[in-house]
Write a structure and sequence with these properties.
Structural class of chain B: mainly alpha
CATH topology of chain B: MetI-like fold
CATH class of chain A: Mainly Alpha
Keywords (chain A): Cell membrane, Membrane, Transmembrane, Transmembrane helix, Transport
Shape of chain B: globular
Structural class of chain A: mainly alpha
Shape of chain A: globular
CATH architecture of chain B: Orthogonal Bundle
Oligomer: heterodimer
CATH class of chain B: Mainly Alpha
Pfam families (chain A): BPD_transp_1
CATH superfamily of chain A: MetI-like
GO cellular component, one term (chain A): plasma membrane
Distance between the termini of chain A: 37 Å
Organism (chain A): Glycomyces artemisiae
Radius of gyration of chain B: 24 Å
Largest sheet of chain B: 2 strands, antiparallel
Number of domains of chain A: 1
Largest interface: A-B, 102 and 104 residues
Largest sheet of chain A: none
Distance between the termini of chain B: 34 Å
Strand order of the largest sheet of chain B: 1-2
Number of helices of chain A: 14
CATH superfamily of chain B: MetI-like
Number of domains of chain B: 1
GO biological process, one term (chain A): transmembrane transport
Strand content of chain A: under 5%
Number of strands of chain A: 0
Helix content of chain A: over 70%
CATH topology of chain A: MetI-like fold
Number of helices of chain B: 12
CATH architecture of chain A: Orthogonal Bundle
C-alpha cells in the first residue's frame, strides 16, 4: 500500500472492500458468459431458457456434445482449425525470423524503403483485399481449399506484424555476440540460425501466440472461400448448428463452442504472462 | 562482407516481400481496377464505367445510414474501451491480494475466439435469455436486445468492448508503471488530492499511450466483421450494418464486385488516414515512450 498524506473520507478497510466490490461487479460480463456457456452446454434443451436463470440443472446431460459430432463433421473441422493454425504459425516464424533479422541487422541498398513496402501489409484491412483475392484464388483453382486461409495469413498482416516484432527484437540485441561468431568463421545464415534465433526465443513465442490466435479466430476468409462442411474451420462451423427451419440448436452450439474455447483458455491460464506480453506487443502495432 | 552480405539480406526478406506484393499490393491494385468497372457475374465480363461506381456511392440511399452506424459503433467502442481500460488499469495498478487474478479475468475474453464469444452473447441476449432473466430478478423488464435498432447497436458495441478491452488495460498498466514515482511523491507533499494527481500528473504523462491506443482501437473497430455477422447480420434493418459488413454484402451476397471494391477502398482510406495520424503522433512523442 502507498502511504497517503491527504485526508480520506473512508478508512483503508472500507476502501479496500469498495475496490473489491467494484472489481467483482465489473468482472461479471467478462467471466459469466464463458461460465454460462459451459453450464448451459450440459443442460437439456428444455432448460436452456429456464426462468429464473440458473447455472445448475437437476438433469445434467452430455447429449449435446454427441450431437455436435453427429450433426457436422466436427472432429474433422477441429482438426482443420488446428492443422491450419500450426502450419501458418510455422511459416510465419520462419518468414518473419528471416525478414525481421535482415531488416534489423544486414545493410543493403533500399532497406528502409522495402521495410515501408512490407509495412503496407499491416495497414490494409483483409476486408479490402478479399474481393480481388477471391478472384485470384478462383483463377488458381484454390477456392474451396485451405490454401487461401494458409497463404494469406502466413504472408499478409499477421506475418508483417511478426516481422515488425522480430525486427524490434533484433535491433535491441547486442551486436558483439554476432561479431564473435563471425570471427569463428560463421556465415550470415549460420549466425542467424545458431546465434540469433536461439536468443530470440521470447520474441518468437510472442509471435507464435499471436499468429496461432489470428489463424484460429479467422472468420471472414473461411466464410468466403469454403463451401464444403468437411473443409470448414471451427469459427465457421460454430455458426452452422441450425435446425432445418433456421432455428439455432442452442445447446449443441454451446457444447461445440465450449470445446473450441476451453482448451485455449486452459493454455492461457497456464502461460498467461506470455499471452499478456505478446498481446501487449500486438497493441503497439502501427 | 559487403556485396555478398547485401545479397543475403535480399534473400532473407524475399519471402516476406513477395508475400506482401502478391497478397496485399496486387489485390489493392486490382480493387482499384474493379472499382472502375462493372462486373457481369454471369459472363465474367468487365465493362469500364469510369467513376460510375463512385457516383453510385454518392447516390446510394443506404450509404449515409451505413456510415452513421459505422461512426456510432466505432465511436462507442473507442470511448468505452478507453474509459473502461483506463479505469481497470488504475484500479489494478496497485499491490493488493488478487490483483493478478483480476487482471487475468479481465484479459481472458481476448483469447476466446470472436465467433464463440459473440455466439454466447447472442444466446444471453435473446428475449428470454440470461441477460433479461437477470434483469427480471431485479424487477426490470428487459428489451428484446437484438430485435430493435438502438439496443442492437448497444449489444454489438458492448460485446466488442468487453472482448477487447483487456489489451488496452495491459497497455495502460505498462504506461502507468512508467510514470516516475517521485512525481507522485512531490505532488503528495504539496498536498494535492488523488483526483488532482490523476488529472494533472497521470493523465498528461500517459496521454501519448492514450492517443495511440484510441487510434488502434478505432482501426480495429472499423474491421469488426465477425461480431456483426454473427450477432445481428447488420440488422434489424440497416441499424448495425457498418461499412465492413456492407462491403461484404455488396461483394459476396449481391455479387456486385465493382461497387463492393469501391466501398472497400473507402474503408481503406479511413484506415490509412487514421494510421498516418498515428504515425505522425508517434514520431512527435517518441521521446515520451518507454
Amino acid at each position: 500500500m502507498r502511504t497517503e498524506t491527504a485526508p480520506r473520507p473512508f478508512g483503508p478497510l472500507a476502501r479496500r472492500i469498495a475496490l473489491y466490490a467494484a472489481l467483482i461487479v465489473l468482472a461479471a460480463p467478462f467471466v459469466i458468459p464463458t461460465l454460462w456457456m459451459v453450464a448451459s452446454s450440459f443442460k437439456p434443451l428444455s432448460e436452456i431458457f429456464a426462468s429464473p436463470p440458473s447455472f445448475f440443472t437437476d438433469s445434467p446431460t452430455a447429449a449435446a456434445y454427441g450431437e455436435a459430432f453427429a450433426f457436422q463433421p466436427f472432429a474433422r473441422q477441429y482438426f482443420n482449425s488446428v492443422y491450419i493454425a500450426l502450419v501458418v504459425t510455422l511459416i510465419v516464424l520462419l518468414v518473419s525470423g528471416l525478414a525481421g533479422y535482415a531488416f534489423a541487422r544486414i545493410r543493403f541498398p533500399g532497406r528502409n524503403l522495402l521495410f515501408v513496402v512490407v509495412l503496407i501489409g499491416l495497414l490494409v484491412p483483409s476486408e479490402v483485399t478479399i474481393v480481388p483475392l477471391f478472384q485470384m484464388f478462383k483463377q488458381a483453382g484454390m477456392v474451396n481449399t485451405h490454401w487461401p486461409l494458409i497463404l494469406v495469413t502466413a504472408f499478409a498482416a499477421p506475418c508483417v506484424l511478426a516481422t515488425f516484432i522480430m525486427r524490434q527484437f533484433f535491433i535491441a540485441l547486442p551486436v558483439e555476440l554476432e561479431e564473435a561468431a563471425r570471427l569463428d568463421g560463421l556465415g550470415r545464415f549460420g549466425i542467424w540460425r545458431r546465434i540469433c534465433l536461439p536468443l530470440a526465443r521470447p520474441a518468437l513465442s510472442a509471435v507464435a501466440i499471436l499468429t496461432f490466435l489470428s489463424s484460429w479466430n479467422l472468420y471472414l476468409e473461411p466464410t468466403v472461400y469454403l463451401t464444403s462442411p468437411e473443409l470448414f474451420t471451427l469459427p465457421q462451423a460454430l455458426t452452422r448448428f441450425t435446425d432445418p427451419y433456421g432455428g439455432e440448436m442452442w445447446n449443441t452450439q454451446l457444447a461445440a463452442a465450449t470445446m473450441t474455447v476451453v482448451p485455449v483458455l486452459v493454455v492461457f491460464l497456464i502461460a498467461q504472462r506470455q499471452f499478456v506480453e505478446s498481446l501487449a506487443h500486438s497493441g503497439l502495432k502501427g | 562482407m559487403g556485396r555478398a552480405d547485401a545479397a543475403t539480406g535480399y534473400l532473407f526478406i524475399a519471402p516476406q516481400l513477395v508475400g506482401v506484393l502478391v497478397f496485399v499490393i496486387v489485390p489493392v491494385g486490382l480493387a482499384i481496377w474493379y472499382s472502375l468497372n462493372d462486373w457481369n457475374i454471369f459472363t465474367g465480363q468487365l465493362t469500364y464505367v469510369g467513376g460510375g461506381n463512385y457516383q453510385a456511392a454518392l447516390d446510394d440511399p443506404a450509404l449515409p445510414s451505413v456510415l452513421g452506424a459505422t461512426a456510432v459503433f466505432s465511436g462507442g467502442v473507442v470511448a468505452l474501451n478507453i474509459v473502461l481500460g483506463l479505469a481497470l488499469a488504475v484500479m489494478l495498478n496497485r499491490r493488493f491480494k488478487g490483483a493478478v487474478l483480476f487482471r487475468t479475468l479481465f484479459f481472458s475474453p481476448v483469447v476466446v475466439s470472436v465467433v464463440a464469444w459473440t455466439l454466447v452473447w447472442g444466446f444471453l441476449l435473446q428475449d428470454n435469455g440470461g441477460v433479461n432473466g437477470v434483469l427480471a430478478l431485479v424487477g426490470v423488464d428487459g428489451p428484446n436486445w437484438l430485435q430493435n435498432g438502438p439496443t442492437a447497436m448497444v449489444a454489438v458495441t458492448f460485446t466488442q468492448v468487453v472482448r477487447s478491452v483487456g489489451i488496452n488495460m495491459v497497455l495502460f498498466l505498462a504506461a502507468l508503471q512508467g510514470v516516475p514515482g517521485e512525481l507522485y511523491e512531490a505532488a503528495r507533499l504539496d498536498g494535492a488530492d488523488p483526483r488532482r494527481i490523476f488529472f494533472r500528473i497521470t493523465l498528461p504523462l500517459i496521454s501519448p499511450t492514450l492517443l495511440l491506443t484510441a487510434i488502434i482501437t478505432i482501426v480495429g473497430a472499423l474491421q469488426s466483421f465477425a461480431q456483426i455477422a454473427v450477432l445481428t447480420e447488420g440488422g434489424p434493418g440497416l441499424s448495425t450494418t457498418v461499412l465492413v459488413y456492407y462491403v461484404f454484402q455488396q461483394a459476396f451476397s449481391f455479387n456486385d464486385i465493382g461497387y463492393g471494391s469501391t466501398l472497400a477502398l473507402m474503408l481503406l482510406t479511413f484506415v490509412m488516414v487514421l494510421t498516418v495520424i498515428q504515425w505522425q503522433l508517434r514520431r512527435k512523442w517518441v521521446f515520451y515512450e518507454d
